[in-house]
Amino acid sequence: MRFDVLTLFPEIFSGYVSQSLLSKAIENGLVQIDLHDIRKWTLDKHQRVDDRPYGGGPGMVMQVEPVVECVEAVQKTGENPGNLIMLTPTGKPLNQRLVEELVQCPRHILLCGRYEGFDQRVVDILNPQEISIGDYILNGGEVGAMALIDSMIRLVPGVLGDEQSSQDDSFSTGNRLLEFPHYTRPRDFRGRTVPEVLLSGDHGAIAQWRQEQSLQRTRERREDLL
Q1: What one-character DSSP code corresponds to residue 93?
Q2: What are the pLDDT digits (tens) for 207-226?
Q3: pLDDT at 169
Q4: Which fold has domain 2-153?
Q5: What's the rounded Cα separation, in Å, for the pair 117 and 141?
Q6: For residue 22, what pLDDT is reported?
Q7: What local confidence, expressed as pLDDT, does residue 161 receive?
Q8: Domain-by-domain residue ranges, the chain?
Q9: Rounded to 5 degrees, what angle do the CA atoms 216, 150, 84 make?
Q10: What is the DSSP letter of 226?
């Protein structure tokens, strides 16, 4: 799976792409991430990509020209133009079902905004899929892009050590309950012990306990899922 990230600050991703599962997935050829600096497509000698909004108001707006030129150039670098995604708080909320739909596409171009957002003509011309990672405001789309990449690569075959892990995750298709609690060594820590059923070796009893715990946790924390 290929991700092209379009941003004003590509250096933000240097540590992210070199760690943990993502780093191994890139090394094994399962995931490809290419970073593109939007400033390279501006015609301004000072590499400005933003300007004051027409009509007045606070903040600056990312200009249409460098953004559209950047996207169109990057789209031509692959066998197919890919799925263009704009990270924006006004977009469709990201959830596991949407992630499962997105992962069916082999290439995604992630457009990260800054300041007060994009000139509306970026949307009008490019018609991106607009996605929000939550009802809150960040300084830019980079964190959202990382969250989107992280959620998608888990579903790429070979990325996780055990494919069953993603199937048992909270919110996964066929699993409307929150995931049950997990335990590992030591058996006793400060008087808090591992539930006996998990030590019993009775797989049927363990499965029942986990189902009951998932139901209880969901009822307490996310009753809307029921």
Answers
A1: E
A2: 999 999 999 999 999 999 88
A3: 67
A4: Alpha/beta knot (3.40.1280)
A5: 9
A6: 97
A7: 79
A8: 2-153, 176-225
A9: 120
A10: -
Low-confidence ranges of the chain (pLDDT < 70): 163-170, 172-175
CATH H-level superfamily of 176-225: tRNA(m1g37)methyltransferase, domain 2 (1.10.1270.20)
Q: What's the CA gap between 199 and 182, in Å, rounded?
A: 12
pLDDT reported for residue 174: 64
- CB distance 95 to 132 below 8 Å: no
CA torsion angle 211 216 222 223 (round to 10):
100
Tokens found for residue 180:
């049950």
Active site positions, annotated: 89, 116, 154, 169
Angle at 71 between CA 65 and CA 73, to 5 degrees: 100
**Element holding 50 (H helix, E strand):** strand 50-51
Token couple for 65: 């020209």
Cis peptide before 10 (omega within 30 of 0): no
Burial zone of 113 (CB within 10 Å; 0-12 exposed, 13-18 middle, 19+ buried)? buried
**Residues sharing a CB contact under 8 Å with residue 148, sequence separation 6 or more, in sequence order:** 85, 87, 94, 99, 102, 108, 110, 131, 133
CA-closest candidate to residue 86, choices 104, 70, 108: 108
Containing 214, the helix (H) or strand (E) segment is helix 203-221
CA dihedral 196, 197, 198, 202 (to 10 degrees): 140
Number of H helices, E strands in the chain: 7, 9
